[in-house]
Protein backbone atom coordinates (compact mmCIF):
# COMPACT_ATOMS: atom_id res chain seq x y z
CA UNK A 1 0.00 0.00 0.00
CA UNK A 2 2.90 2.28 0.74
CA UNK A 3 4.07 1.88 -2.82
CA UNK A 4 0.63 2.72 -4.14
CA UNK A 5 0.36 5.80 -2.01
CA UNK A 6 3.70 7.14 -3.07
CA UNK A 7 2.05 8.88 -6.02
CA UNK A 8 -0.34 10.82 -3.80
CA UNK A 9 0.88 14.29 -2.89
CA UNK A 10 -2.30 16.02 -1.82
CA UNK A 11 -4.13 15.56 1.46
CA UNK A 12 -7.61 15.76 -0.08
CA UNK A 13 -6.83 12.97 -2.56
CA UNK A 14 -5.40 10.85 0.27
CA UNK A 15 -8.68 11.15 2.18
CA UNK A 16 -10.62 9.92 -0.82
CA UNK A 17 -8.45 6.85 -1.13
CA UNK A 18 -8.60 6.18 2.60
CA UNK A 19 -12.40 6.17 2.52
CA UNK A 20 -12.42 3.40 -0.09
CA UNK A 21 -9.89 1.36 1.88
CA UNK A 22 -11.94 1.50 5.09
CA UNK A 23 -15.05 0.28 3.22
CA UNK A 24 -13.03 -2.45 1.44
CA UNK A 25 -14.10 -1.01 -1.88
CA UNK A 26 -12.23 -1.33 -5.11
CA UNK A 27 -9.93 1.61 -5.53
CA UNK A 28 -10.71 3.85 -8.47
CA UNK A 29 -8.35 3.72 -11.39
CA UNK A 30 -5.82 6.49 -10.92
CA UNK A 31 -3.58 8.19 -13.38
CA UNK A 32 -1.11 10.48 -11.77
CA UNK A 33 0.12 13.49 -13.65
CA UNK A 34 3.51 14.62 -12.47
CA UNK A 35 4.24 18.30 -12.94
CA UNK A 36 7.79 19.14 -14.01
CA UNK A 37 7.96 21.70 -11.21
CA UNK A 38 8.77 20.24 -7.75
CA UNK A 39 6.15 22.37 -6.04
CA UNK A 40 3.29 21.19 -8.31
CA UNK A 41 1.21 18.46 -6.69
CA UNK A 42 -1.84 18.17 -8.99
CA UNK A 43 -3.35 14.80 -9.87
CA UNK A 44 -5.93 13.91 -12.55
CA UNK A 45 -8.41 11.10 -11.86
CA UNK A 46 -9.99 9.43 -14.90
CA UNK A 47 -12.98 7.13 -14.71
CA UNK A 48 -13.37 4.50 -17.35
CA UNK A 49 -16.44 5.02 -19.57
CA UNK A 50 -18.22 1.79 -20.30
CA UNK A 51 -20.40 3.28 -23.11
CA UNK A 52 -19.15 2.73 -26.66
CA UNK A 53 -18.12 5.88 -28.49
CA UNK A 54 -19.17 4.61 -31.93
CA UNK A 55 -22.79 3.67 -32.59
CA UNK A 56 -23.32 0.19 -33.87
CA UNK A 57 -24.46 0.17 -37.49
CA UNK A 58 -27.18 -2.38 -36.67
CA UNK A 59 -28.84 -0.13 -34.08
CA UNK A 60 -32.04 1.49 -35.36
CA UNK A 61 -32.21 5.30 -34.97
CA UNK A 62 -35.36 6.83 -33.54
CA UNK A 63 -36.66 9.16 -36.28
CA UNK A 64 -38.53 11.29 -33.75
CA UNK A 65 -35.24 12.32 -32.17
CA UNK A 66 -33.52 13.31 -35.42
CA UNK A 67 -33.02 17.08 -35.76
CA UNK A 68 -34.99 18.67 -38.60
CA UNK A 69 -34.54 22.35 -39.42
CA UNK A 70 -37.49 24.74 -39.36
CA UNK A 71 -37.19 25.32 -43.10
CA UNK A 72 -37.42 21.58 -43.83
CA UNK A 73 -40.43 21.19 -41.53
CA UNK A 74 -42.17 24.05 -43.30
CA UNK A 75 -41.52 22.48 -46.71
CA UNK A 76 -42.88 19.13 -45.54
CA UNK A 77 -45.94 20.82 -44.11
CA UNK A 78 -46.62 22.70 -47.34
CA UNK A 79 -46.17 19.52 -49.39
CA UNK A 80 -48.79 17.73 -47.30
CA UNK A 81 -51.07 20.81 -47.44
CA UNK A 82 -51.59 20.70 -43.69
CA UNK A 83 -53.40 23.70 -42.21
CA UNK A 84 -53.70 24.34 -38.48
CA UNK A 85 -56.97 25.29 -36.83
CA UNK A 86 -55.82 28.86 -36.30
CA UNK A 87 -55.42 29.27 -40.07
CA UNK A 88 -58.87 28.02 -40.98
CA UNK A 89 -61.31 30.85 -41.73
CA UNK A 90 -64.84 30.49 -40.50
CA UNK A 91 -66.19 31.72 -43.84
CA UNK A 92 -65.26 33.81 -46.85
CA UNK A 93 -67.35 36.72 -45.60
CA UNK A 94 -68.91 37.52 -42.20
CA UNK A 95 -72.68 37.40 -41.84
CA UNK A 96 -72.77 40.44 -39.52
CA UNK A 97 -71.31 43.96 -39.67
CA UNK A 98 -69.04 43.19 -36.70
CA UNK A 99 -66.47 40.40 -36.87
CA UNK A 100 -63.03 39.32 -35.66
CA UNK A 101 -60.54 40.02 -38.44
CA UNK A 102 -58.33 36.97 -37.86
CA UNK A 103 -61.27 34.59 -38.41
CA UNK A 104 -62.03 35.89 -41.93
CA UNK A 105 -59.97 36.79 -44.99
CA UNK A 106 -59.43 40.53 -45.68
CA UNK A 107 -62.72 41.97 -46.87
CA UNK A 108 -62.72 44.04 -50.07
CA UNK A 109 -65.27 46.74 -50.84
CA UNK A 110 -66.36 48.94 -53.67
CA UNK A 111 -65.25 52.55 -53.46
CA UNK A 112 -68.84 53.67 -52.74
CA UNK A 113 -69.24 51.24 -49.83
CA UNK A 114 -65.86 52.18 -48.35
CA UNK A 115 -66.79 55.87 -48.42
CA UNK A 116 -70.18 55.16 -46.80
CA UNK A 117 -68.54 53.19 -43.99
CA UNK A 118 -66.11 56.02 -43.27
CA UNK A 119 -68.91 58.59 -43.36
CA UNK A 120 -70.77 56.55 -40.73
CA UNK A 121 -67.72 56.71 -38.45
CA UNK A 122 -67.38 60.47 -39.00
CA UNK A 123 -70.90 61.36 -37.80
CA UNK A 124 -71.21 63.76 -34.82
CA UNK A 125 -72.22 60.99 -32.40
CA UNK A 126 -69.11 58.99 -33.39
CA UNK A 127 -65.79 60.66 -34.33
CA UNK A 128 -67.36 63.98 -35.37
CA UNK A 129 -64.96 64.30 -38.28
CA UNK A 130 -67.13 65.60 -41.11
CA UNK A 131 -64.50 68.23 -41.99
CA UNK A 132 -61.80 65.55 -42.27
CA UNK A 133 -60.13 64.27 -45.43
CA UNK A 134 -60.29 61.02 -47.34
CA UNK A 135 -56.95 59.59 -48.50
CA UNK A 136 -56.08 56.83 -50.94
CA UNK A 137 -53.09 54.60 -50.16
CA UNK A 138 -51.84 52.65 -53.19
CA UNK A 139 -49.16 50.02 -53.69
CA UNK A 140 -47.45 50.28 -57.07
CA UNK A 141 -45.62 47.72 -59.17
CA UNK A 142 -42.37 49.18 -60.57
CA UNK A 143 -41.14 46.00 -62.25
CA UNK A 144 -40.57 45.61 -65.98
CA UNK A 145 -40.03 42.62 -68.25
CA UNK A 146 -36.37 42.67 -67.26
CA UNK A 147 -35.69 41.41 -63.75
CA UNK A 148 -32.86 43.90 -63.22
CA UNK A 149 -34.65 47.02 -64.47
CA UNK A 150 -37.34 48.95 -62.60
CA UNK A 151 -39.47 52.05 -63.15
CA UNK A 152 -38.45 55.14 -61.18
CA UNK A 153 -40.65 57.11 -58.79
CA UNK A 154 -43.49 59.03 -60.38
CA UNK A 155 -44.42 62.67 -59.78
CA UNK A 156 -47.36 64.33 -61.46
CA UNK A 157 -49.93 67.08 -60.97
CA UNK A 158 -53.59 66.41 -61.74
CA UNK A 159 -56.56 68.75 -61.82
CA UNK A 160 -59.49 67.07 -60.07
CA UNK A 161 -63.07 67.66 -61.24
CA UNK A 162 -64.16 68.60 -57.71
CA UNK A 163 -61.71 70.76 -55.80
CA UNK A 164 -61.40 70.94 -52.02
CA UNK A 165 -59.10 72.86 -49.65
CA UNK A 166 -55.87 70.99 -48.98
CA UNK A 167 -52.56 72.35 -47.72
CA UNK A 168 -51.14 75.76 -48.58
CA UNK A 169 -50.89 77.30 -52.08
CA UNK A 170 -47.68 76.13 -53.77
CA UNK A 171 -44.80 78.49 -54.61
CA UNK A 172 -44.50 78.68 -58.40
CA UNK A 173 -41.58 80.11 -60.39
CA UNK A 174 -42.62 81.54 -63.77
CA UNK A 175 -40.13 81.94 -66.66
CA UNK A 176 -41.28 84.14 -69.53
CA UNK A 177 -39.86 86.98 -71.61
CA UNK A 178 -42.67 88.76 -73.48
CA UNK A 179 -44.26 91.82 -71.92
CA UNK A 180 -47.70 90.23 -72.15
CA UNK A 181 -46.66 87.12 -70.23
CA UNK A 182 -44.78 89.14 -67.61
CA UNK A 183 -47.87 91.24 -66.92
CA UNK A 184 -50.04 88.10 -66.79
CA UNK A 185 -47.66 86.43 -64.29
CA UNK A 186 -47.87 89.51 -62.10
CA UNK A 187 -51.66 89.58 -62.21
CA UNK A 188 -51.89 85.86 -61.40
CA UNK A 189 -49.91 86.40 -58.22
CA UNK A 190 -46.80 84.42 -59.10
CA UNK A 191 -44.32 84.01 -56.23
CA UNK A 192 -41.36 84.87 -58.47
CA UNK A 193 -41.28 85.54 -62.22
CA UNK A 194 -38.91 86.98 -64.79
CA UNK A 195 -36.91 86.32 -67.92
CA UNK A 196 -34.51 83.34 -68.03
CA UNK A 197 -31.52 85.71 -67.83
CA UNK A 198 -32.91 87.44 -64.74
CA UNK A 199 -33.77 84.17 -62.98
CA UNK A 200 -30.34 82.71 -63.79
CA UNK A 201 -28.66 85.75 -62.25
CA UNK A 202 -30.80 85.52 -59.09
CA UNK A 203 -29.96 81.81 -58.66
CA UNK A 204 -26.25 82.37 -59.31
CA UNK A 205 -26.07 85.20 -56.74
CA UNK A 206 -27.94 83.10 -54.18
CA UNK A 207 -30.90 85.46 -53.97
CA UNK A 208 -33.35 82.61 -54.67
CA UNK A 209 -32.98 78.83 -54.55
CA UNK A 210 -34.74 76.23 -56.72
CA UNK A 211 -35.65 74.40 -53.48
CA UNK A 212 -37.93 77.30 -52.56
CA UNK A 213 -40.39 76.41 -55.33
CA UNK A 214 -42.74 73.44 -55.65
CA UNK A 215 -43.23 74.03 -59.37
CA UNK A 216 -41.41 75.74 -62.25
CA UNK A 217 -43.35 76.72 -65.38
CA UNK A 218 -42.05 78.34 -68.54
CA UNK A 219 -43.46 79.64 -71.77
CA UNK A 220 -42.46 77.75 -74.91
CA UNK A 221 -40.56 80.74 -76.40
CA UNK A 222 -37.98 80.36 -73.58
CA UNK A 223 -37.19 76.73 -74.36
CA UNK A 224 -33.60 77.29 -75.51
CA UNK A 225 -32.78 80.00 -72.98
CA UNK A 226 -33.62 77.86 -69.94
CA UNK A 227 -31.24 75.04 -70.88
CA UNK A 228 -28.47 76.32 -68.52
CA UNK A 229 -30.97 75.97 -65.64
CA UNK A 230 -31.51 72.22 -66.15
CA UNK A 231 -28.92 71.27 -63.51
CA UNK A 232 -30.60 73.59 -60.97
CA UNK A 233 -34.20 72.47 -61.45
CA UNK A 234 -33.58 68.71 -62.05
CA UNK A 235 -37.01 66.99 -61.81
CA UNK A 236 -38.81 70.34 -61.87
CA UNK A 237 -37.24 71.37 -65.17
CA UNK A 238 -40.01 72.51 -67.60
CA UNK A 239 -40.96 69.95 -70.25
CA UNK A 240 -43.91 69.64 -72.57
CA UNK A 241 -44.64 66.09 -71.40
CA UNK A 242 -44.99 67.32 -67.81
CA UNK A 243 -47.30 70.16 -68.81
CA UNK A 244 -45.07 72.95 -67.44
CA UNK A 245 -43.73 74.15 -70.80
CA UNK A 246 -46.38 75.77 -73.02
CA UNK A 247 -47.52 79.03 -74.52
CA UNK A 248 -50.72 78.85 -72.44
CA UNK A 249 -49.38 80.49 -69.27
CA UNK A 250 -52.81 80.83 -67.69
CA UNK A 251 -53.60 77.15 -68.27
CA UNK A 252 -50.30 76.06 -66.71
CA UNK A 253 -50.91 78.32 -63.73
CA UNK A 254 -54.39 76.88 -63.22
CA UNK A 255 -53.03 73.32 -63.33
CA UNK A 256 -50.15 73.74 -60.87
CA UNK A 257 -51.78 76.28 -58.57
CA UNK A 258 -55.15 74.54 -58.25
CA UNK A 259 -54.09 70.97 -59.02
CA UNK A 260 -52.95 68.21 -56.66
CA UNK A 261 -49.40 66.93 -56.95
CA UNK A 262 -48.65 63.34 -55.99
CA UNK A 263 -45.26 61.65 -55.67
CA UNK A 264 -44.52 57.97 -55.04
CA UNK A 265 -41.96 56.50 -52.65
CA UNK A 266 -39.99 53.30 -53.11
CA UNK A 267 -40.53 50.44 -50.64
CA UNK A 268 -38.22 48.15 -52.59
CA UNK A 269 -36.77 48.41 -56.09
CA UNK A 270 -39.85 46.74 -57.53
CA UNK A 271 -42.55 48.11 -55.24
CA UNK A 272 -43.63 51.57 -54.14
CA UNK A 273 -46.36 53.39 -52.25
CA UNK A 274 -48.45 56.42 -53.09
CA UNK A 275 -50.84 58.44 -50.90
CA UNK A 276 -53.13 61.09 -52.34
CA UNK A 277 -55.94 63.23 -50.87
CA UNK A 278 -59.35 62.29 -52.28
CA UNK A 279 -61.66 64.93 -50.82
CA UNK A 280 -63.56 66.04 -47.74
CA UNK A 281 -65.69 63.59 -45.75
CA UNK A 282 -68.71 65.89 -46.10
CA UNK A 283 -68.50 65.93 -49.91
CA UNK A 284 -71.11 63.92 -51.83
CA UNK A 285 -70.08 60.38 -52.70
CA UNK A 286 -70.63 61.07 -56.41
CA UNK A 287 -67.99 63.82 -56.38
CA UNK A 288 -65.53 61.66 -54.45
CA UNK A 289 -65.97 58.80 -56.92
CA UNK A 290 -65.22 61.15 -59.84
CA UNK A 291 -62.04 62.32 -58.09
CA UNK A 292 -61.13 58.67 -57.50
CA UNK A 293 -61.53 57.82 -61.18
CA UNK A 294 -59.39 60.81 -62.18
CA UNK A 295 -56.57 59.68 -59.87
CA UNK A 296 -56.65 56.10 -61.17
CA UNK A 297 -56.53 57.21 -64.80
CA UNK A 298 -53.65 59.61 -64.09
CA UNK A 299 -51.53 57.13 -62.12
CA UNK A 300 -51.97 54.26 -64.57
CA UNK A 301 -50.61 56.40 -67.43
CA UNK A 302 -47.11 56.10 -65.97
CA UNK A 303 -46.78 52.40 -66.85
CA UNK A 304 -47.77 50.51 -69.97
CA UNK A 305 -50.71 48.16 -69.60
CA UNK A 306 -48.66 45.57 -71.51
CA UNK A 307 -46.60 45.12 -68.32
CA UNK A 308 -49.70 44.31 -66.28
CA UNK A 309 -51.61 46.30 -63.67
CA UNK A 310 -49.63 49.20 -62.17
CA UNK A 311 -51.67 49.51 -58.96
CA UNK A 312 -51.58 46.38 -56.78
CA UNK A 313 -53.87 47.48 -53.94
CA UNK A 314 -55.90 50.53 -52.82
CA UNK A 315 -57.01 51.46 -49.31
CA UNK A 316 -59.36 54.24 -48.27
CA UNK A 317 -58.50 55.93 -44.96
CA UNK A 318 -59.97 58.90 -43.10
CA UNK A 319 -57.76 59.93 -40.15
CA UNK A 320 -58.13 59.95 -37.19
CA UNK A 321 -60.22 56.82 -37.76
CA UNK A 322 -57.92 53.75 -37.61
CA UNK A 323 -60.09 51.85 -40.12
CA UNK A 324 -58.59 50.98 -43.51
CA UNK A 325 -61.02 49.67 -46.10
CA UNK A 326 -59.48 47.63 -48.91
CA UNK A 327 -60.97 48.13 -52.37
CA UNK A 328 -61.57 45.59 -55.10
CA UNK A 329 -58.71 46.91 -57.17
CA UNK A 330 -59.40 44.62 -60.13
CA UNK A 331 -62.66 46.50 -60.79
CA UNK A 332 -60.98 49.89 -61.23
CA UNK A 333 -57.40 49.36 -62.43
CA UNK A 334 -56.67 48.29 -66.02
CA UNK A 335 -54.56 45.19 -66.49
CA UNK A 336 -56.42 42.71 -64.27
CA UNK A 337 -58.95 41.79 -66.90
CA UNK A 338 -58.25 40.64 -70.44
CA UNK A 339 -58.04 44.11 -71.99
CA UNK A 340 -56.83 44.42 -75.53
CA UNK A 341 -53.36 45.94 -75.70
CA UNK A 342 -52.40 48.14 -78.63
CA UNK A 343 -49.30 47.07 -80.54
CA UNK A 344 -47.75 50.50 -79.95
CA UNK A 345 -48.11 50.10 -76.18
CA UNK A 346 -46.61 46.62 -76.28
CA UNK A 347 -43.64 47.82 -78.34
CA UNK A 348 -43.17 50.75 -75.94
CA UNK A 349 -43.22 48.36 -72.98
CA UNK A 350 -40.60 46.14 -74.59
CA UNK A 351 -38.46 49.16 -75.43
CA UNK A 352 -38.75 50.46 -71.88
CA UNK A 353 -37.84 47.05 -70.48
UniProtKB/TrEMBL annotation:
SUPFAM superfamilies: Ribosomal protein L1
Keyword annotations of the record: Ribonucleoprotein, Ribosomal protein
Regions crossing the membrane: none
Domain of life: Eukaryota
Annotated GO CC locations: ribosome
Gene3D superfamilies to which the protein is assigned, alphabetical: 3.30.190.20, 3.40.50.790
Record-stated family: Belongs to the universal ribosomal protein uL1 family.
PANTHER family attached to this UniProt entry: 54S RIBOSOMAL PROTEIN L1, MITOCHONDRIAL, LARGE RIBOSOMAL SUBUNIT PROTEIN UL1M
Protein name per Swiss-Prot or TrEMBL: 39S ribosomal protein L1, mitochondrial isoform X1
Gene name of the record: LOC101851925
Amino acid sequence: MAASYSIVHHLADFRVLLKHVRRNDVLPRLSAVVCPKPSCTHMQIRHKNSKPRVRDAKVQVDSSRVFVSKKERLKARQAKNVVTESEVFLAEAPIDNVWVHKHYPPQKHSVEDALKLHKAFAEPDMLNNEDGLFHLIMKLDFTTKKQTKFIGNIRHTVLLPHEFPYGTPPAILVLCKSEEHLNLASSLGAHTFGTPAEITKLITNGVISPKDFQHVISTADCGNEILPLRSHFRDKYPQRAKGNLSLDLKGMWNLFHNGYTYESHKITEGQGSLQVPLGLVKQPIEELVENFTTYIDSVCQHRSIALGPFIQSIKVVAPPSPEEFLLRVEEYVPGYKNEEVDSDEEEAAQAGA
